[in-house]
């Protein structure tokens, strides 16, 4: 047994999860085969527009954000240009999404801070990102993961539900779930793990209805809600769409 595996086994024991290290590794191996290179559903052209898109996506679907950012990013793909648009101009373009007033305020304020404190560049540390208006830990983790290639775990509603439902990262807060997931997921899978879990939660292990017949980890899953124990075929799914086997 390698030193790395022994360390992982200890982590599983410490975190009191009901899965063995080999089972966790197998779950993420299958996700990696199903979607080798998952991508964000948000449209963006650079790190700055990714940051703005993620800030705008709070409590709103990615598709709605993409609709409003299409024109906005043509006009303003840098903080300096966004400031020229002004708070009212930003608000005008994002009126179709929820919380648009507060989001317009935050986008304007974060542009001011980027220029004042960071030379117009998006910083690459969690601490600095979280000083920006409208940027919490989850948003910072998304930026670090997608833009800077850091193996962070941005816990959204799907990941929070899966961590608790499947029992491999139960916690009362997103922070607790994040901490456990980062500990138990093998390093080689961490980069894409949050995408895989979000997509699995969106299409298969949904909040109200679980699609266990379509689930590639049905044999490994230990959720009490599970309705089937035969795994769906492990084949690659193109893009971020739903896998449908039966
Ligand atoms: S088997 Fe069912 S409950 Fe378990 S992960 Fe798959 S969809 Fe969710």
From TrEMBL:
Listed GO MF terms: endonuclease activity
CDD domains the record matches: ENDO3c
The EC number(s) this enzyme carries: 4.2.99.18
Domain annotation Helix-hairpin-helix DNA-binding motif class: ranges: 127-146
The keyword Kinase appears for this protein: no
Pfam family, one: HhH-GPD
Top-level division of the source organism's lineage: Bacteria
InterPro entries per record: DNA_glycosylase, Endonuclease-III-like_CS2, HhH-GPD_domain, HhH_base_excis_C, HhH_motif, Hlx-hairpin-Hlx_DNA-bd_motif, Nth
Domain HhH-GPD: 56-203
Reactions catalysed, as given in the entry: 2'-deoxyribonucleotide-(2'-deoxyribose 5'-phosphate)-2'-deoxyribonucleotide-DNA = a 3'-end 2'-deoxyribonucleotide-(2,3-dehydro-2,3-deoxyribose 5'-phosphate)-DNA + a 5'-end 5'-phospho-2'-deoxyribonucleoside-DNA + H(+)
Cofactor annotation comment: Binds 1 [4Fe-4S] cluster.
Cofactor(s) the record lists: [4Fe-4S] cluster
Keywords, alphabetical: 4Fe-4S, DNA damage, DNA repair, DNA-binding, Endonuclease, Glycosidase, Hydrolase, Iron, Iron-sulfur, Lyase, Metal-binding, Nuclease
First-level EC class: lyase
Family: Belongs to the Nth/MutY family.
Role, per record: DNA repair enzyme that has both DNA N-glycosylase activity and AP-lyase activity. The DNA N-glycosylase activity releases various damaged pyrimidines from DNA by cleaving the N-glycosidic bond, leaving an AP (apurinic/apyrimidinic) site. The AP-lyase activity cleaves the phosphodiester bond 3' to the AP site by a beta-elimination, leaving a 3'-terminal unsaturated sugar and a product with a terminal 5'-phosphate.
Protein name, UniProt field: Endonuclease III
Species per Swiss-Prot/TrEMBL record: Bartonella bilalgolemii
Gene: nth
């Amino acid at each position: 047994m390698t030193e790395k595996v022994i360390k992982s086994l200890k982590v599983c024991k410490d975190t009191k999860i009901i899965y063995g290290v080999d089972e966790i590794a197998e779950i993420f191996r299958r996700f990696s085969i199903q979607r080798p290179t998952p991508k964000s559903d948000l449209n963006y052209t650079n790190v700055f527009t990714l940051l703005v898109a993620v800030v705008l996506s709070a409590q709103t679907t990615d598709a709605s954000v993409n609709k409003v950012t299409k024109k906005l990013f043509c006009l303003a793909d840098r903080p300096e240009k966004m400031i020229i648009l002004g708070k009212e101009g930003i608000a005008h373009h994002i009126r179709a999404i929820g919380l648009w007033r507060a989001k317009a305020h935050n986008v304007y304020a974060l542009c001011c801070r980027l220029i004042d404190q960071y030379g117009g560049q998006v910083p690459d540390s969690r601490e600095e990102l979280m000083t920006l208006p409208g940027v919490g830990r989850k948003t910072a983790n998304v930026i670090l993961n997608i833009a800077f290639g850091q193996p962070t775990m941005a816990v959204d509603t799907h990941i929070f539900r899966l961590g608790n439902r499947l029992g491999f990262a139960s916690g009362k807060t997103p922070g607790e779930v994040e901490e456990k997931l980062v500990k138990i997921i093998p390093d080689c899978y961490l980069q894409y793990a949050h995408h895989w879990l979000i997509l699995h939660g969106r299409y298969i292990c949904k909040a109200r209805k679980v699609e266990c017949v379509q689930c590639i980890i049905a044999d490994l899953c230990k959720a009490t809600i599970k309705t089937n124990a035969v795994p769906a075929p492990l084949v690659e799914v193109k893009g971020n769409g739903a896998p449908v086997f039966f």
